[in-house]
Each structure stands twice: as C-alpha cells, then as structure tokens.
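Q: Entry one of two.
A:
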Amino acid sequence: MRHHLSGRQLSRNSSHRHALLRSLSVSLLRHETIRTTIPKAKELRRVVEPLITLGKEDSEANRRLAFSRLRDSEIVAKLFDTIGPRFKARPGGYTRILHMAPRPGDNAPMALMQLVERSAPVGVEAAPEDKKAKKADKPAAPSKEEKKAKAEAKKGREKAAKEAKAAKAVEKKAAKKTGGAVAKKKKAAAPKKKKSSK
C-alpha cells in the first residue's frame, strides 16, 4: 500500500528525484521555457509554483528557504527581483505545459513548459515608432563620389593582386628551370661507381 507516497516516482530513487527536480526548477527559472517529458513537467509544476509564490514576498527568511531548495544564488536573486514582482497580481497558475510531438528515440511524450508571463524575447521586432527613430539615427547613404572612389580602390586592389599572382607564377617557372639545370649538372659531376666483380 502506498500510504502518504504522493507524486510520481519517475523511475528514480528519492535523492536522484530531488536532484532532477532541483535542476529542472533552476533551468525553468533561468530560461523561462524548457522542453522535457510530460510526467516530469507535471511533477515540476508542484515544485516551481510554490517557489514563485515564495518569491512574491521578498524577505530574508524567504530568500534562505528558496536557496535551500534551489542551491543557486543567481536564480534566487532573479526569483525575488524579477519573477516574483511580475506575478504579484496573479493568485496562482504561473506555468503552462504545452504538449509536443513525441521524442524520436523512445517515443516519450514531450512537453514545452514555460512561465505564463514571460519577459519579452531579445529578437522581438520594435514598434513602428521605434523603427522611425532608428531610421533617423542611421547615417545618410554614401554620395556618388564616395561610391566611385570605393569602386576605383577595389579595382586597384584587384589589379595589384593579379600582378602579384603573375609575378609569383613567373618566379615559379624560373625556379623550375634553374632547379632542373642544377640537378643535371649534379648528375654529370657525380662520378660513376664501377661494379666490382669477384
């Protein structure tokens, strides 16, 4: 009988399970979205949501309690400085679990777990007003004279590179000719050994 044994075993012993959930909690709070299996995500929800509730009220005791569960001071600081205040008005339900396609290797059911109110991603497009401001900040397009000067400089560089290449080819040919002549002279200069017959 499984009296008082709540939660999923996840095919691990208790210490391994606690370590797994701690590492998943830190990853979720750091990246605000992670990909994992559905049973792990459902079990992680029971660990992370109380931590976010703890982060809504900043106090020394709460910070110590969060650190004892996460063991990562950087994430504890993020929890109390940014994540907790973000969910101040929300009474619960801080995470969402989105079902994904099964994992190719073992067909395990996969899920995308993320915080409901996430910070804006880095690659978000700016608002139209911001785009206009950025266009105003950009330097003016180069004039025709500048373009012409750049084109001439490029042609000059290409011409110099071709001339250098041609000069190298001529030197190589000359080296081959002189190298062949030197080898012939060495052969002629070397005395022939007579075979001794016994």
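Q: Entry two of two.
A:
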Amino acid sequence: MSSSRASPSPRSGRVGKRHQARELALKVLFQLEGAGDDPEEVLRYHAFENAATEEIAAFAGDLVRGVIANQEKLDAILSEASEHWKLEQMAKVDRIILRIAIYEIAIDRRVPTKAAINESIELAKTFSGEESGRFVNGILGRVAATAT
C-alpha cells in the first residue's frame, strides 16, 4: 500500500459496507504486520481516518481480531496452498489479503466462499495490481477446494 494509494480508496463511495470493512481491516493489518502496535488503537485510528460507520468498523474489527487470533493456522493453510511461494516471498499486501480471505473461508464462514474470493481479488487489484489479483485467485481457489 504505497503512498500513491489514498485512503479511503477512490472507489469507496460505490462499494458495499463489507468491502469497505475488508479494506479497513487490510489497512489495519498492514500497519500491524511486524509492529508492536495495539490492534484496537490502530483500528480506531483507521476507522476515524476513513470515516467508517460503526457497522463497517465492527465488521473490520471482527476480521482483524480473527486474523490475529488465528494467524498461525491461517499461515499454515496459506503455505499449503501456495506450493511454490514462501510466505516471506509474497508481497506483504497480498499475504494480508490472503489471510483475511482464508479466515473468512476456513474459519469465520459468515460469507459465501465465492464472495470472499471475489472481494479479495478486488482488494488485490486495487492495492497491489492486476497480477496480484490472479495470484490471489489462484491460491484461494486451492484453499476453497480443500476447505471443509
């Protein structure tokens, strides 16, 4: 998420609340990666900066807390599905997008798998690029095929 990507995303006025929440969760998890910051504080900051409604902030918070609480399991699933890619070789933003989606597909299960995958592809295209969209789709396709 380079400085050329403004917050909120240029499309935020035309996307659904859940998409906005996933975007918010991505920004929070991106900042938290490798940092010792307080997740709740970072969430409040980004929710304020993005003028997120309570509903959007609550769903984003669920995603952030779920990814953090299950990161070891999510990374194991991601490593298994990404045969030729080590986690540390992946772009940071792609890795975080994949963790969010895998959390939704394999653990949370509140949204249909196809919706989680499509949302993740859109996030990857917005924050990482077209090739990342294909990369995310390929890995999540493998995750979805093995998810129970």
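A: Comment on entry two: Residues 92-108 form the longest helix (17 residues). Confidence is low (pLDDT under 50) at residues 1-13.
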